[in-house]
Write a structure and sequence with these properties.
The complex is a heterodimer of chains A (about 500) and B (about 375).
Chain A: E1 9-13, H1 23-27, E2 33-36, E3 41-44, H2 54-58, E4 64-68, H3 81-93, E5 98-99, E6 114-116, E7 137-139, E8 148-151, E9 154-157, E10 165-167, E11 171-173, H4 183-195, E12 200-201, H5 209-215, E13 219-223, H6 232-237, E14 240-244, E15 255-257, H7 264-270, E16 278-280, H8 290-303, E17 310-315, H9 320-329, E18 334-338, E19 347-348, H10 349-352, H11 359-372, E20 380-384, H12 390-398, E21 403-406, H13 408-414, H14 436-439, H15 444-468, E22 484-486, H16 491-497, E23 500-501
Parallel strand pairs in A: 11-21, 12-13, 13-14, 14-17, 17-18, 18-20, 20-21, 22-23
Antiparallel strand pairs in A: 1-4, 2-3, 5-19, 6-22, 7-10, 8-9, 15-16
Chain B: E1 14-23, E2 29-30, H1 32-39, E3 50-55, E4 65-71, H2 76-93, E5 94-101, E6 115-123, H3 134-148, E7 152-156, E8 161-166, H4 170-176, H5 179-182, E9 184-185, E10 187-195, E11 208-210, E12 213-219, H6 224-233, H7 244-257, H8 262-269, H9 274-277, H10 282-295, E13 304-310, E14 313-318, E15 327-331, E16 334-338, H11 341-347, E17 353-355, E18 363-366, H12 368-373
Antiparallel strand pairs in B: 1-10, 1-16, 2-9, 3-8, 3-10, 4-6, 4-7, 5-6, 11-12, 12-13, 13-14, 14-18, 15-16, 15-17
Helix pairs in contact in B: 1-11, 6-7
The chains are: A alpha/beta (about 500), B alpha+beta (about 375).
Chain lengths: ~500, ~375
């Protein structure tokens, strides 16, 4: 059938500069560029281009430029180009439109409507280059009261303290499974986490056996509805276990790793046959209610000898705060909430762009809900979904999060350009693919360095902002909405965020 | 769930002078000397708040809780109506043995004084509340008054002690309440205030108190929002629009309810930095790490120096990087704390020992009789 959709991008090649080295041809897994030996020139097919810019950056002659196509349908306020083309594609295929990475829709980005405070006169700002600035954070349940005894001036703690995860900076790598991303990308995250005093999350694809000893000390392992790669050693080599209930990019639906991506090693790690589809059901089929979740939490605590905090990750949806409160009462030590802009390797576009609520609102309403019920200390909150920079992190913390997960940001540090073609398995940047020719493009050494640099840069910036507010320990900013003001927000939005307007 | 309205409270910001004097033998003395000492730091305040806490002033009612109440409002009518409502509330929940207007000098120059009354009472615990401790019961009732009865504020609630405070220079407030003539205490703490906003109200002056714990404070607490939500989870309503109140409530929560020793409390309010904790021996490291982990939300961040008064005890503490001044001194059985050494020298030119406490390290004065008891 002839497709009525025209290409998204226009490839402009400067023939003067092009040296016919065929580098672009090798770089593009989508087959955009081909060499014509008769004419001795490279030919590009605009239809195949994903707009990932790999060929542009790696062209030794800087001969390629890729732009959005200037072609257009007659402008229409209701029938945007995207709506028109999606419809055409469905008329041509009869299928669900797939996409990758987080939603690109213009939902209000609250981070950009919140401004931070700084000290003037009455309270000295603190220079983080000269004074200690403490970002260390403990994730897990804290007791309501602590019992101590004093004997001969020696103080001893009587209360049993639940296990907590200590991070040197409140930024953790979000769940990205081996299988969805390449081994090298996965290993880069693990390497960077260990080097930077933080943690990486294995996602639901298991943890390759040979990585357990080296990287277990900075691993969070996930238990998801597919139960891939789970055994006692997997649970116990890590520092925290996370039950994945939902994901911000696709609340309410499961996952599907196509058989083509299930290589021998992915198969071994996931404990499934090579080449079979790895399907994560939408719900956990042993969790149909809160008491079922409570049993799974207890089972995991038993399996890990009560030595590791148990996290439950849910997507931020309409009534999630009440659900999260139930999850805390069910025994979870940490609640991870993932907002509507959270990333994914593959999701139906209609789900990604229409289901869930923004992270910023979710953090605030969850924090306030747990406080009003007097159980905020019984869990920590990790916020995920749409964290782009250090100021997003610090605002998340002031709104009540204990730490944040970054997924997309980490991928961008490794080279991702958000072309949203993750679901094709043809990632030219070597991230979201199992093709060894592509995944070999990531050097663990370089990619992990880029990730560690990112954590270091953000941590420095957080220290800088914190010092400006006259605060030298991050725990004093947690839930401290006093230091936030809203600009350009409606009253109801400021109510939900619990912040005053600028100047108020 | 109905939408929770965002809070539009205003937090006062102020700089101040603080002073404390204690006789560790328990001998009582009038407020004359501390008034003289605080007057010496006149320029550290701006006349928008001053106050005193005095311990040992009501020996005749020492078994009863002494409630000091402030009835504000624009007209005498409004004040009396607040008092009427309060009287009814007290009658239901307490056995009041004596009450009177707190004596004051009418010819004084202080501006716009509210109606200030004191009640001596015992809790009348009934029904579900019968099992509460006296302290918990009283804290609960105070929170009800301060949040529920318009224009009525409990600003002092301990046994055999009392706070006196208002808008004016502390020496003027002392004169207004005739502290140099009517009262003798073994511990006096004093506060002179320099708020940066002009809205001055009597309830906003220091000391802040809950039961027998009083706090005078110089500084701004930048962790206020965090401290506040944590305390609210334990039933403390922060109503007085100032960050000092969170120190009083934190002291009550940690010392009275959780019974933690003051050394531990100091390590919670002003903990050592991680760099130092990581280098301690295993036992200390474990204790301090746990304290910071559990009580992180009670870390008081930002510059402060405080004097905390309690029955038989006076404690001085500064923030962990010591951004506000505090000087400690002793002379015989007298123990002094002050923002400036000159004020101590003014009333006691000869001193046995004068020192500047390190940031985050508490200085504690206790009655000698207490030490014997322990």
């Amino acid at each position: 059938m002839k497709s009525f959709v025209f290409p998204e991008f226009q490839i402009i090649r400067d023939e003067e500069k092009c040296g016919q080295c065929r580098g672009c041809e090798r770089q593009c897994a989508f087959g955009t560029h081909t060499y014509d030996p008769v004419a001795d020139r490279l030919v590009s097919d605009d239809y195949k281009c994903a707009g990932c810019q790999r060929c542009v950056i790696f062209c030794p002659k800087k001969a390629i430029e890729i732009r959005p196509t200037p072609s257009f349908y007659r402008p229409h306020a209701s029938w945007s180009r995207e709506k028109l083309e999606d419809l055409k594609k469905q008329a041509e295929t009869g299928g669900v439109i797939l996409t990758g990475s987080g939603s690109d829709k213009p939902f209000r980005i609250y981070w950009d409507h919140i401004v931070l405070n700084a000290s003037q006169v009455t309270n000295p700002s603190i220079d983080p280059l000269r004074e200690p600035m403490e970002l260390r954070t403990f994730l897990g349940a804290k007791p309501d009261l602590m019992d101590v005894t004093t004997q001969n001036g020696e103080i001893e703690i009587k209360t049993d303290i639940a296990p907590n995860l200590m991070v040197e900076t409140p930024i953790l790598f979000s769940a990205m499974s081996y299988g969805a991303i390449s081994y090298n990308a996965f290993r880069s995250l693990a390497t960077a986490a260990c080097r930077s005093g933080t943690y990486f999350n294995t996602g639901e694809g298991g943890l390759p056996r040979e990585m357990r000893e080296e990287f277990g000390r900075c691993a969070i392992v996930q238990v998801a509805s597919g139960r891939f790669g789970i055994d006692a050693e997997y649970l116990n080599c890590a520092q925290m276990v996370e039950i994945k209930v939902g994901q911000g990019a696709k609340p309410g639906i499961g996952g599907h790793l196509p058989g083509e991506k299930v290589s021998a090693m992915v198969a071994e790690t996931r404990m499934i046959p090579v080449g079979t589809d790895a399907i994560s059901p939408a719900p956990h089929h042993d969790i149909y209610s809160i008491e079922d979740l409570s049993m799974l939490i207890t089972a995991l605590k038993e399996a890990t000898n009560y030595e590791k905090p148990i996290s439950v990750k849910i997507a931020a949806v309409h009534n999630f705060a009440a659900i999260a409160s139930g999850i805390v009462r069910a025994g979870a030590d940490i609640i991870a909430i993932d907002g509507i802009r959270g990333g994914t390797g593959a999701a139906p576009k209609v789900i990604r762009d229409n289901v869930g609520i923004p992270t910023e609102l979710a953090i605030s309403s969850l924090d306030r809900r747990l406080r009003s019920e007097g159980i905020r200390n019984r869990c920590s909150i990790i916020a995920a979904g749409g964290i782009r920079c250090s100021s997003d992190v610090i605002k998340a913390i002031a709104l009540g999060a204990d730490a944040v997960y970054i997924g997309t940001a980490a991928l961008i540090a490794m080279g991702c350009t958000l072309c949203q073609k993750c679901y094709t398995g043809k990632c030219n940047w070597g991230i979201c693919t199992q093709d060894p020719r592509l995944s070999g493009r990531i050097s663990v050494e370089i990619a992990s360095q880029r990730l560690s640099n990112l954590i270091s840069a953000w941590s420095h910036e957080i220290a800088e902002m914190l010092g400006g507010m006259g605060i030298n320990a991050l725990e004093s900013l947690r839930g401290n909405r006093d230091h936030l003001r809203g600009v350009g927000l409606y009253e109801w939005e400021m109510d939900v965020l619990g912040i005053k307007g600028a100047g108020e | 769930m109905p939408r929770i309205r965002r809070e539009l409270y205003n937090k006062d910001i102020c700089a101040c002078s603080i002073f404390g004097a204690m006789n560790r033998d328990g001998e009582r003395f009038t407020g004359a000397r501390v008034m003289k000492a605080i007057a010496n730091m006149h320029v550290r305040g701006n006349g928008l708040g001053g106050g005193f806490a005095a311990y040992g002033i009501y020996p005749q009612y020492s078994d009863y809780y002494a409630f000091h109440l402030m009835f504000t409002g624009n007209s005498m009518e409004a004040r009396l109506s607040a008092k009427k409502e309060l009287d009814a509330f007290l009658g239901q929940n307490f056995d009041v043995v004596h009450d009177e207007e707190i004596p004051h000098r009418d010819e004084s120059t202080v501006s716009d004084p509210p109606l200030v009354w004191r009640y001596f009472a015992q809790p009348k615990k009934q029904g579900e509340e019968a099992d509460l401790s006296d302290g918990d019961y009283i804290v609960k009732k105070i929170m009800t008054v301060n949040t529920g009865i318009e224009n009525a504020y409990v600003f002092s609630s301990g046994k055999n002690m009392g706070c006196f405070k208002g808008v004016g220079y502390p020496e003027d407030i002392g004169e207004y309440f005739m502290l140099d003539q009517l009262y003798s205490a073994y511990t006096w703490t004093v506060h002179g205030r320099f708020p940066t906003n002009t809205q001055a109200w009597w309830g906003g002056a220091h000391p802040f108190s809950l039961l027998d714990t009083t706090v005078v404070h110089n500084g701004e607490i930048s962790s206020y929002g965090t401290n506040r939500w944590y305390l609210e989870m334990y039933g403390y309503a922060c109503t007085l629009q100032t960050d000092t109140e969170v120190i009083a409530y934190a002291a009550d929560l940690l010392m009275r309810r959780q019974k933690l020793p003051i050394e531990v409390v100091a390590k919670i309010l002003a903990p050592p930095i991680w760099n130092r904790i990581d280098r301690m021996n295993e036992k200390e490291r474990k204790l301090l790490t746990t304290l910071r982990m559990v009580y992180g939300p009670l870390l008081m961040n930002g510059p402060f120096a405080v004097i905390i008064g309690q029955t038989g005890r006076m404690i001085g503490l500064t923030d962990r990087i010591r951004l506000r001044p505090l000087t400690a001194a002793t002379r015989g059985e007298m123990f002094y704390l002050s923002s400036e050494e000159a004020s101590i020298r003014l009333i006691s030119p000869e001193l046995d020992r004068v020192w500047t406490p390190n940031g985050g390290e508490p200085v504690i004065g206790e009655l000698n009789s207490m030490r014997v008891l322990q």
